[in-house]
Amino acid sequence: MATIGHNNLNAKLVLLGDMGAGKSSLVLRFVKGQFLEFQESTIGAAFFSQTLAVNDATVKFEIWDTAGQERYHSLAPMYYRGAAAAIIVYDITSADSFTRAKKWVQELQKQGNPNMVMALAGNKADLEEKRKVTAEEARAYAEENGLFFMETSAKTAANVNDVFHEIAKRLPRAQPNQNPAGMVLVDRPAEGGARAASCCS
Amino acid sequence: MFGTQSQKDLSLETPFSRQSIHTRRAKITVKFQDLYGFTVEGNVDDANILNEVREKVRQQGKAWWALEASKGANWYLQTHVSSALKSSLKFSNLVNAITLKKLIRKGIPPVLRPKVWFSLSGAAKKKSTVPDSYYNDLIIAVEGKVTPATKQIDHDLPRTFPGHPWLDTPEGHASLRRVLVGYSFRDSDVGYCQGLNYVAALLLLVMKTEEDAFWMLAVLLENVLVNDCYSNNLSGCHVEQRVFNDLLKKKCPSIYAHLEALEFDVSLVATEWFLCLFSKSLPSETTLRVWDVLFYEGAKVLFNVALAIFKMKEEELLMTQYVGDVINVIQNTTHHLFDPDDLLTVAFDKVGFMTSTNISKERKKQEPAVMAELDQRLRRLNSSNLDVNSGLT
Ligand SMILES: Nc1nc2c(ncn2[C@@H]2O[C@H](COP(=O)(O)OP(=O)(O)OP(=O)(O)O)[C@@H](O)[C@H]2O)c(=O)[nH]1
Ligand SMILES: [Mg+2]
Is B231 on the interface with A (CB under 8 A)? Predict the structure, then answer.
């Protein structure tokens, strides 16, 4: 959930995507500025937090980096429940991972927080020679579905901070005169109701 | 194969590292090598504790040798609490069983681990029901076959404890691959589940031979752990998480209430514990001490240990205000548990008595709810796309 106090925003962010797409690597790059050629596979999920300054506010991301293997799917709702933002990651060298990404988008559309800011990240952009998914195809899909799209590389750091910055900018803000209780955005998915806050996709 | 012979003193600044601890720990002072060759990072106190643990392990070894001298070699291999109670009224057996249980909770000396685990876990018995050549035949039969499981295994080999001096070598990768691929064919319902890579890797380090590691993996999945822990949507794992949640409520009510108020779901941290059997969270010797008891007393031990981790940090946990703080407290705790006795004393003396029968009952109670929930989710996902667009503007 995204909660707002003064100019500070706490936002739960979840990364979803196929095993090995580079979710953990993106987070490690964003949080620590590092890249490991061999990143341990994630079991369940790993938690990180990182604060970003955007314009007049600071956004503290509470990041859930989930496990990508298909059978871990049944654990995912625990992590995306109440998330203010999601980064759906695929590997540009794997068509399967793009298919999987689309499934995640569908699932979030059905069961996620309706105000969720969603980003589609085509990772491993440094592996141009092995590319299987074109940027055009992915961008078109993202536009159709109201996500914003970037190609990233956790290895070279290209666009990694940018994805998180863009999310931070798009997170719904409270109106200055809104009452505090109204500033808490939806934290229960798929139950309708609190759709009043404007969506920024 | 890499062994436990590294009796040399803690070396600083060794070039390899155990990622799960390494990547999550913020304030690092020194790097040192633990008993099983993992490089961990901690402060100077941690290094000292680890040296003390080495000494305790040596002392514990002496206790085992002394018993062997008085009761005869392999005395412990014919002993089991339940079988002694049931089948034999021989007093000496019962005494042995009680001695053994206590002894195991204090730790099996690393040199005896392969033999004791293999026998007491039931792996030896499992192996004895098939021809001697079973493992070799299996490995030959599956060589060169490509399945979704083998692809995922190949993907994970270099991602399993990267940097370990034996596991992260071509030889280590090849061994781990054969064990995991072999198992994926033995049980195609399980196939390959991420998490097993860490478990199998640690089994290889302890058991020394690939074949024994394979049988340990088999007995673990087929007899020791709850069914479907790694297969079928991880339903078994979901069951364990619910049982754990209820146990925490019962045994640590104030922690539970506090976490509930923070909307902290215990499975956020416990899922990894139950799927990797703590191998990704605790220092290696501490993990193996948990496994010592796990293989003798069964899967209920995982609950003792998980509860103990929370219980040990009651005060700190009650002061947390955010989910992130809770996770930090827990991770700092697990990564620093270099003295296994600190954890196991709480696990067996302070969280209260739990029997395997009670745990089984709890599981039975949770199963229908888990199945219903998983089923309902699946149906919701497959339901018509009518309301899909209402989530968008
Ligand atoms: N060339 C290249 N390799 C990358 C990039 N990002 C990740 N990798 C590599 O891809 C492998 C998988 O990356 P992870 O970050 O572990 O992938 P994940 O999505 O977290 O995988 P799971 O935890 O199994 O779900 C690692 O060996 C990384 O080093 C990238 O941008 N470029
Ligand atoms: Mg990962």
Answer: yes
